[in-house]
Amino acid sequence: MRECSRSIVRRLHEPNYVRKYFVGDGVDIGGRPDPLALYVELFPLCRSVRVWDRQDGDAQHMASVTDGTFDFVFSSHCLEHLIDPDQALSNWIRIVKPGGHLIVTVPDEDLYEQGQFPSTFNSDHKWTFTIGKRESWSPKSISLIRFLDNHVGDVEIHRLQQLDSDYRYNLPRYDRTVTPVGECAIEFILRKRSQIDRAPQPGAQPQAELRRYFNQYRHDRRAIIQGNANVEPFGDDREL
Q1: For 78-109, what is each residue's pLDDT tens digit?
Q2: How far is CA 181 from CA 5, 105, 214, in A?
Q3: Which one of 91, 139, 176, 234 is CB 3.0 to 4.6 Å from 182, fit for a cystine?
Q4: Using CA atoms, how far apart are residues 112 and 134, in angstroms rounded to an integer?
Q5: Do 116 and 146 share a domain, yes or no?
């Protein structure tokens, strides 16, 4: 169940966590009993991480926290426990300073729940998550492509990634969180826009940023597979 701990080695191998994301004073929403603060010395630009859990107030509202309090918000496997994840994310964005980051992980519905909901592994799960699919077997599925699109006026999407590098697909169905390896999650990282960033652009469309993100991802992936670093990027957004 220690999802934060099992992610630390992965994060230490990616410079942005050290240089950009875990910087300044942060809050770890839903952090007990495995808080990011246990590893704060590994992220030298992080001054402090406050753990926020049930006794501190409802994580959906963060009512006692004023706007723009923290340099970053971190939350590992909390959003799926909340009644209204969309409202929760709005408030998590609210409490971050402009230019600050939100680093959020949720269980991937196929890798964790593995086709059954209500959850047989965690009875408090209220939602399942997927990056995006036309249809889901889960009656409470949230497509993160659509979910994050509700907030692109306030944030930039820096990352939306399935975490399965050490997931063993050939094993029988069981709760992967009871082992020390095998992340089975999705992580998204957002940067809160400044007032200049938030200024509307002439002719901008609501989903334009998401389309650019996924089309660039496809372009980069194709270039890597083909071994061709000089492939021209897509000239428009028609693919998505």
Answers
A1: 999 999 999 999 999 999 999 999 999 999 99
A2: 10, 16, 28
A3: 176
A4: 19
A5: yes
